[in-house]
Amino acid sequence: MSGTAAKGLGSDSKMQVSDRGRKSPWKLDIGATVLENDRVRFRVWAPRADGISVRIVSDTENRLVSLRREERGYFSAVVDGVREGDHYLYLLGDGMERPDPASRFQPEGVHGPSQVVDPRSFSWTDGTWKGRQLHEYLLYELHVGTVTGEGTFEALIPLLDYLLELGITAIELMPVAQFPGERNWGYDGVNLFAPQNSYGGPAELKKLVDACHGKGLAVVLDVVYNHLGPEGNYLHGFGPYFTDRYRTPWGEAVNFDGPYSDEVRRYFLDNALYWIREYHLDALRLDAVHGIFDFSARHFLAELATEVHREAEVLGRKAYVIAESDLNDVRLVDPLDKGGYGLDGQWNDDFHHILHTLLTGEKDGYYEDFNGVGQLAKSLSERFVYSGQYSRFRRRSHGNSAAGRPARQFVVFAQNHDQVGNRMFGERLSALVSFESLKLAAGAVLLSPYLPLLFMGEEYGEEAPFLYFVSHSDHGLVEAVREGRKGEFRSFVSRGDPPDPGAVETFLQSKITPENRLAGRHSVLFQFYKTVIAMRKEIPALSVPDTNAHRVSVQENQNLLLVERWRGDCQVVCLFNFNEQDVAVRFPDNGGWWRKLLDSSDCVWKGVGAVLPDRIAGAASAVMRGRSCAVFSAGARIKDRGARIEERGLRIKD
Question: What is the pTM of this model?
C-alpha cells in the first residue's frame, strides 16, 4: 500500500491491557489520540483488513500514511504534523475509505471524514461536582432536536432554569451518537463516539453537561448497544462486530460472545467509559438490553457495570447504569455475588402498562395483559406485575420476582418516547384522557416509591404529538421505513396512513412549546406537577424511595388505591381513585387525625370541587371525587411543610 511510512511507535503502540485494579483514570485507546508537538496516534481494530492506511486532510495537505499491524487485528501509527480539527479517513484493503469506528466527531455526517478532537481543549468548570445519589433522581427525558426550536445542545441551556423550577434533578438525553441526516430519534446512530453534528457536536455537548452540573442537575445519556442503524454502519468492513447466530428486531445482533468478541466487547465498554470520562456524564441508560445476546461466562452487562463503577470510583464521583428491558428479570439489578449483573436500575414497563390501561381503557397489544387496580397495587409493592405468571399477550409465563430489590433501582413513568412515539399518531396522554386523569397520572408516578421519569412537555400537558421521524439520504431506505411503518399499523387502516417518517413536517409537528405552561390549564397542570414534586422532596415519608415503610390497600370494586408511607414520626396516606364516579374511602386508623395536603379535584386545580374534608379522624370514612388523587399527613413534623405546599398551590392564577 502506498503512502508515507509510519514513525516508530514506541510506547504509544502498546495494546490496551486489562484494567483490573487500575488507580488512574481510563483513557480511550482507539481512534485519533492527540499527543504533544502536533502528533496524533491513529489506532483502529480491523482484523478483516490485509492492510490499512489513514488519509489525513487539512487546509494545507492531503496525505496517506500506512498503519502498522499489531496483535489481534489492531493497526496504529503516530503521525507528525497533525492537529485538532484535521480530517481523516481510513483506507481499507478493498480500496474503500471509511470514517473511524471510534471517531469523536463527524462534521459532515455519517458518510464523511472523521475529525481529530482533543478532549483537553474544553475547559470544564464542574471540578467540585460529585454527582447525585440515585435515590434523588427525578428524571426528565428529552429529545434534543424537538425540545427547543433550534434543536441543539446549546439551545437547551436556557431551559435548565425552567427544569429546576419544576423540580427536576436529572435530564435524560435520548441518543446523541451520530445518525444519518439531521432528524432522527437517535436509535439509528452509527458513530457511537461522535455527538451528533446537527446538535452541535462535542464542544456543545460538553458545554451543556458543564452547565447542568453548575446548576446541580445530573445528566443521563441513552446509549444503544444492541444494534447500529442501517445507514452509515461501516463496522462490517473493519471486523466481525455482528453475528448471525442471533436475530434482533433490527437485524444481526452485536457479537458479544463469538470469535473476536473480546475486541467487540472492548469497543462497547470503551464507549461507555468514554461518555463517563470525557463528557462527565452521570449515568447511562442502556436501550433495550433484551436485544443484547451473550452466553459467555461473564455477561457483557455485568462487565459494563463493573467497569463503569470502577471508573466512577477512580474519578471520585457517582456514575450509574440503568437498563431498559422488557424481560422483567431481576438479574439485571441483582448484585454480582447473587448471580446478577450489578446494574444500578431498570425501567419498569409493567407500572406504565397498568397505569395506562387504568387511565385509557385500552386493551390492544401488550395492554391485554393488564386490568384492575390490584395489578397497580402489586407493581407498587413488588415492582413487576408479571413475576412468573402466564401472559396472554406473550402466550407464556413471564418475568420473575423483584420484590426484595431496593425501590431506588426502578424507574417509573406515565409517558416516555417509546410509549408515545410508537403509537400510530404519536398521541400523548393529553390527547387520550381527561384533565382530571392527567393529574391522577402525575400523582401516581410522582408519589410512587420509585424513581419518577417525565417525558418532555408532560408536565404542562403538551398537545403536540411525538412522531417517528428519520432523514436518511438513501431514498430506498426511507421508502422501506415508510412502508414498514404502514405495515406495523395495518390493522388500523380505517384511521388512514401513519405520518410519513421521512417528511420534515413530521419532525416539526413533534417540537414542543414549553411556553404553553404559562397559560390556561397548561399553567394549572404545571403548577400541580411542581407542587407534587415539592411534596416528594420535602415530606420525609415521600422523599426516599422505599417499599419497606409502605403499605398498599385496594378497593377493587371501586378502582381505588390507598397507599400508606411512613418515615420516623411522619405518616402519609396517598389516595388514587381511578373510578369515574365518586367513591367512599375509609382512612387508616392512626390513632389520631389525618390532615389534607393535596386534592387534585380541588377548584384551585381546576377540578370539580373537593369533597374530602380538610381534616379527618383515623378509621373514619369520606367521599372522594372520581378520577382524582389526594394526600393526607399525620405527624407534627410536616405541618409547616404542608402549609408551604398548600400555599404554593393557592398562588395559581387563571
Answer: 0.94
